[in-house]
Design a protein that fits this description.
Elements lengths: L2 H12 L1 H13 L8 H13 L3 E6 L3 E5 L8 E8 L23 H15 L2 H5 L3 E8 L7 H9 L8 H8 L7 E7 L5 E4 L2 E2 L1 E10 L15 H15 L10 E8 L10 E10 L2 H22 L2 E8 L11 H14 L3 E4 L4 E2 L5 H7 L2 E6 L2 E2 L8 E2 L2 H20 L4 H9 L6 H10 L2 E5 L9
Helix pairs in contact: 1-4, 1-12, 2-4, 2-12, 4-12, 8-9, 10-12
């Protein structure tokens, strides 16, 4: 660890109370995706207090601050924190105004990026960086609240349902060369997160039937709930056709199932995700999902609308993770933390829109603990704020510094090792190609009376 790296750690330690306060504040004021207006405002206030050039309202709520001003020469590294939370209103710390909870740990990400400001804006450290740093609070990583996002798309306010996907689309990532991301992991202390992950597409399906009295004259109805039930059975029958190596996952729920127990349902809505390890595999699974929906509609005579929304792409591991490993070691050395390593040969079946970022530029990721419970569950609670927020800030700052010191040699090496999967233009073409609406017309038989 060189002198400025030690100074980074010291500056963050000197501001630990403010960093922890930021983490607590965001934790208790959780907001859903594309609705993170309060969080965005708080983040922007920190950037402006440090005199940074700030852009706001990116992809509805995104906030971007430039350490050396927009357009500064050299390699640009983005430190990215996700602002959104999950719809878990029964969490003890749920925001009563939104029903949202940070059971994803995104509050730690934003607190970590804020904390890195205290070190990287120091004049001596800033001048030692041969390049620029972007502090980026981004919206809507959790692909939930799908009907709300669908509504934003129909209004023309967004093109895609994921925050980073939308930021790529509108060009807000165009001036970034390397992205650095963080994940909360309650099972770990410090962790290199260089594993691959599944990609996915989302489905919103509406079955259209005909109402009737469920006891007095059920034969006069077309039961949309039966159509949905049959479709879900058909989806289950597809599972043996999925290859184990593709880690396909198809899961969802019925978000609207009818109006009353004694009324044949005329309108039923299903929301599902179709995931897999690679694009061909989840494209194949998506087609099998659609034909299952058709089967449910045809068998019952109901109509259906299948709305396919592009989700996220699989995460591509980085080929050179030395700077993250060094940063983890530096922080572990000072606090005695345990380091785990999720390397490129490890795969997880969840998804993140960091995957989309990894397909167009180098992505470095790490994780920190400090929570107990299970991600995405109401038992998730911060129990070690030093680890959750302060250690996260230190790693963010150290990674940026290590990439950009000494003529940005490490950044250049990472960029040189990277093999781009899609250009921005190819990415947009692919995402747009996955936007599909299929309508199946109802074909009821004549009533017998």
């Amino acid at each position: 660890m060189d002198r400025l790296e030690q100074k980074i750690l010291d500056l963050i330690d000197q501001n630990r109370e403010e960093i922890i306060a930021a983490g607590r504040d965001i934790w208790t004021h959780a907001e859903m995706g594309f609705k993170e207006f309060r969080t965005a405002g708080k983040f922007a206030d920190f950037l402006k207090a440090k005199g940074l050039e700030v852009e706001e309202g990116l992809a509805v709520t995104g906030v971007k601050g430039y350490l050396k001003g927009k357009g500064a020469p050299g390699t640009t590294v983005a430190l990215i924190g996700e602002m959104d939370a999950l719809p878990i209103p029964n969490h003890p710390d749920a925001n009563p105004e939104t029903g949202a909870s940070h059971c994803c740990g995104h509050n730690a990400q934003v607190a970590g990026v804020i904390g890195s400001l205290f070190a990287l804006t120091d004049p001596e450290i800033r001048d030692a960086l041969d390049g620029n740093v972007v502090f980026f609070a981004v919206p809507a990583e959790e692909f939930v609240d799908i009907e709300f996002k669908k509504g934003l798309m129909e209004q023309g306010k967004i093109g895609y349902g994921g925050g980073k996907c939308e930021l790529i689309r509108i060009g807000a990532m165009d001036d970034i060369d390397i992205a650095v991301g963080h994940h909360t992991d309650p099972a770990e202390e410090l962790v290199l997160k260089n594993n691959s992950s599944n990609g996915f597409v989302n489905k919103v399906v509406e079955f259209h039937g005909r109402k009737a009295h469920a006891a007095g004259a059920p034969h006069r109805g077309l039961d949309a709930l039966n159509a949905a039930t049959l479709a879900m059975h058909a989806i289950d029958m597809q599972r043996e056709s999925f290859r184990d190596c593709d880690t396909v996952r198809v899961h969802g729920f019925i978000s609207r199932g009818g109006e009353a127990m004694n009324i044949i349902a005329d309108n039923v809505t299903m929301e599902h995700s179709v995931r897999a390890k690679n694009i061909p595999a989840f494209t194949d699974a998506s087609e099998k999902f659609d034909r299952s929906i058709r089967a449910g509609a045809v068998a019952t005579g109901c109509g259906a609308t299948i709305n396919t929304m592009p989700g996220y792409l699989p995460t591509i591991p980085a080929k050179d993770t030395r700077v993250v490993e060094e940063a983890l070691a530096d922080v572990a050395q000072t606090k005695g933390y345990r380091i785990s390593y999720h390397r490129a040969d490890m795969h997880t079946t969840g998804s993140t829109d960091f995957g989309d970022v990894s397909c167009i530029m180098p992505l470095l990721q790490f994780g920190t603990g400090g929570y107990r419970g299970t991600l995405h569950n109401p038992d998730m609670l911060p129990i070690d704020e030093e680890l959750a927020y302060v250690a996260t800030a230190k790693i963010f700052a150290l990674v940026a510094y290590k990439l950009l010191k000494n003529g940005a040699d490490a950044a250049h090496a990472l960029i040189e090792s990277y093999e781009q999967v899609l250009s921005k233009e190819e990415y947009i073409r692919y995402m747009d190609s996955m936007k599909k609406v299929e309508t199946i017309e109802p074909k009821p038989l004549p009533l017998l009376d």
